[in-house]
Every structure is written in C-alpha cells, then in structure tokens.
C-alpha cells in the first residue's frame, strides 16, 4: 500500500499506487461561514469563456480537449468563489481562472514546456508585458491575445491601484512560483518542505484570485491602508497556503502519478519525511488544518479589535468563500475525478 520513495529524486513517481481505504478528504476543516449558494451565472460565464478561448485558439478544437474543458466546469468554481459577483465581472474572473488552468496544464503536464525553464520564461514574460498594457507582438501567441483582451476589459472596471496590485501578483506567480517549479521538474529535484510550501503559495496564483475578491463586486477595492493591515495580510497568506496545498491533494494523481511532476505537497512530504502515501496524506491534511485554524483565529482577533470596515469584512468572506468553494468544486469537477484516485471521494 506504500509508494516507493527515492529520497531527493523524482525517479519513483510513476509507480502504481493501490487504491487507499482512506484517508478521506472529509477530514479537511473549513472556516465557519454563512452558507452561500453559487452564483446563478455559472453556466452563462462558462459558455462565454469557452467561446473566447476557442476564438483566439487558446483551446484547440480537438474533441478530447474541448470535452475535458467542458467537464472541468470552470464557471462553477468562479460561481462558488465569488457568489455575489456581477455577470460582467464574473466573466472576467472566470477568464482569468481559465487562463491559469490552461497555462498550468502546459507547464505541469507537457514536458516540452514544463521542463524548459528558458522557453517558459520567455513565454510568460511576453504575457506579463501585455498584462501591464504593452502592445501585442506581430506573432502573438493565443495566450498573449487572450491576455490582451482580458486586460483591456479589466481596465474599464478597475482602478490603476488595483491593476498594479494584480499585475504584481501575476508576476510573483510566474517568477516565484511557476519558474522554480519548472526548474525542479527539469532537474528531477524534489524540493525541501518549507521552500516548497512558499513556492506553492506563489505557484497557486491564489494572490491574484484574492485580488479578484475585490474586483468581483463594484466598490469593494481595498485602499492600501486597509489592504496592508497585518491581520489582513496574515489571513491572505494563510488562505493562499490552504487553497494551494489543498489543491495538491486533489491533483496528486494527475501531477505525480500521470505526469511524473515532483511539485506536489503530498509527494514532497513523502520524500522529505520518508512517509508512506497514507501517512503523507494524513500529514498533509493535518498541516492544512493547522493553517485553517490559524486563519479562523485571525478572523476572531480581527472581529474583536473593534469596528471593522465593511470592505474588509467582505474581503474576509471572499477568502472564506475560496477555501470552501475550492473544495466544493474540486469534488465535482471532471478535472480530478478518476476511478484510480487514491481518494474515495474522487473515484467516479
């Protein structure tokens, strides 16, 4: 029942792992939150994003690729995580999520991309220039064209302050998350635990997703003084860790067993702490729950500190919606469900 471990190397990644009797994803703790149904715009924003990625050829019109895209139900993730967002703004949020997922599929699943850090860096730098308002190159890639269209629409709805924050977080995602992960994969290195946790926080792109909490509803942008409050920043960091590391549970089979990618929290725990698969999953859930508990404690401290600006309260609810929505969507999306998943909840 245990996966063979080759310490410091990714050589043993593709070994077959028998189905586990446990552990269960239900052991993940959630912060208390007002129950919110997903936005009713879920299907509409899914259709709108699908049309755009097909138009710019970011999603090839291959039946298998389109079928996988449809099964992922990205619009449902956006509907869960920004349940009060307006239709126009939710379309933009969903477009960005799809940007991330399609780029992630290239960087995490295609060796010709994910194991060539120099190529990947040039690829992302072109997109970052467009995201900061630069012109399209004459031979722009589909991702660049999609980025340009996304940025143009965002500029009509967001302040310069917010746009700068979003672009800065996108840069951190690519330079401090995606590129180090590509170097690990190319070299066959399994990162050490603490550096990986910080790398994963960046590679999850969750800081950009939390920026969209301010964007999804008009009038919710945080002035810099509120954004920089120590408790807000601490909760932002904890939310990022919880969502990113939780995603590593759901994507373990896809990333590690199918694509031999060592950038996964469960596998990093296996190697660094010499654990079997079930032990590593138990440890991963325990560490994620500790971060969730710390997030809850920060919220309690914030509420006890006196009157809190409504925009900050809305932002906190948005972070909680992400922690809840990430799990709710991951349990139903076709992206992670598999009859050979180590998790019983995903064996469909």
Describe what is shown at a glance.
This protein has 348 residues and is mainly alpha-helical.
The structural class is mainly alpha
- Please describe the biggest sheet, giving its number of strands, its sense, and whether it closes into a barrel: none
Distance between the termini: 21 Å
CATH architecture descriptor text: Orthogonal Bundle
Count of DSSP E strands? 0
**Which percent bin holds the helix content?**
55-70%
Radius of gyration of CA atoms, rounded to a whole number = 19 Å
The shape is globular
| Top-tier CATH class | Mainly Alpha
Arithmetic mean pLDDT: 90
CATH superfamily: Farnesyl Diphosphate Synthase
Number of domain modules = 1
Low-pLDDT runs of 5+ residues are 1-17
Determine the CATH topology.
Farnesyl Diphosphate Synthase
Beta-strand residue fraction: under 5%
What is the count of helical runs?
16
Helix/strand order: HHHHHHHHHHHHHHHH
InterPro entries: Isoprenoid_synthase_dom_sf, Terpene_cyclase-like_2
Family: Belongs to the terpene synthase family.
Keywords: Lyase, Magnesium, Metal-binding
Pfam families: Terpene_syn_C_2 (PF19086)
Describe this structure in words.
- By secondary structure, this protein is mainly α.
- It has one domain (39-346): Farnesyl Diphosphate Synthase, CATH 1.10.600.
- Helix content is 65%, strand content 0%.
- It contains 16 helices and no strands.
- It has helices at residues 42-55, 63-72, 74-81, 87-109, 111-114, 117-131, 142-155, 160-187, 193-203, 206-215, 224-227, 230-250, 252-258, 265-273, 277-304, 310-330.
- Helix 8 (160-187) runs antiparallel to helix 10 (206-215) and helix 12 packs across helix 13.
- The protein is globular and about 50 Å long.
- Residues 1-17 have low confidence and may be disordered.
- It comes from Archangium minus.
- Keywords: Lyase, Magnesium, Metal-binding.
- This is Terpene synthase.
- Its cofactor is Mg(2+).
- Its EC number is 4.2.3.-.
């Amino acid at each position: 029942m245990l996966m063979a471990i080759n310490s410091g190397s990714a050589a043993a990644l593709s070994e077959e792992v028998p189905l586990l009797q446990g552990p269960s994803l239900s052991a993940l703790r959630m912060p208390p939150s007002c129950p919110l149904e997903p936005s009713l715009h879920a299907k509409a924003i899914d259709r709108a994003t699908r049309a755009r990625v097909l138009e710019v050829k970011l999603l090839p019109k291959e039946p298998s690729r389109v079928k996988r895209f449809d099964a992922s139900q990205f619009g449902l993730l956006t509907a869960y995580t920004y349940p009060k967002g307006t239709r126009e703004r939710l379309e933009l949020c969903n477009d960005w999520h799809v940007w991330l997922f399609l780029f992630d599929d290239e960087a995490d699943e295609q060796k010709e991309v994910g194991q060539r850090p120099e190529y990947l860096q040039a690829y992302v730098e072109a997109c970052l220039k467009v995201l900061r308002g630069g012109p399209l190159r004459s031979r722009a890639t589909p991702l660049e064209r999609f980025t340009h269209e996304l940025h143009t629409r965002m500029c009509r709805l967001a302040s310069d302050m917010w746009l700068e924050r979003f672009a800065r977080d996108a840069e951190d995602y690519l330079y401090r998350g995606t590129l180090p992960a590509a170097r690990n994969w190319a070299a066959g290195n399994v990162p050490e635990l603490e550096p990986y946790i910080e790398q994963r926080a960046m590679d999850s792109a969750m800081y950009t997703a939390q920026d969209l909490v301010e964007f999804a509803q008009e009038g919710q942008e945080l002035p810099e003084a509120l954004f920089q409050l120590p408790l807000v920043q601490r909760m932002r960091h904890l939310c990022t860790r919880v969502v990113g590391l939780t995603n590593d549970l759901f994507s373990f089979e896809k990333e590690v067993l199918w694509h031999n990618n060592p950038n996964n929290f469960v596998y990093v725990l296996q190697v660094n702490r010499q654990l079997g698969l079930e032990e590593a999953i138990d440890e991963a859930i325990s560490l994620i729950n500790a971060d969730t508990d710390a997030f809850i404690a920060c919220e309690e401290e914030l509420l006890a500190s006196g009157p809190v600006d409504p925009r900050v309260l809305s932002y906190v609810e948005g972070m909680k919606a992400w922690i809840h929505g990430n799990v709710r969507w991951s349990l139903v999306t076709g992206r992670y469900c598999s009859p050979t998943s180590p998790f019983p909840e995903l064996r469909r």
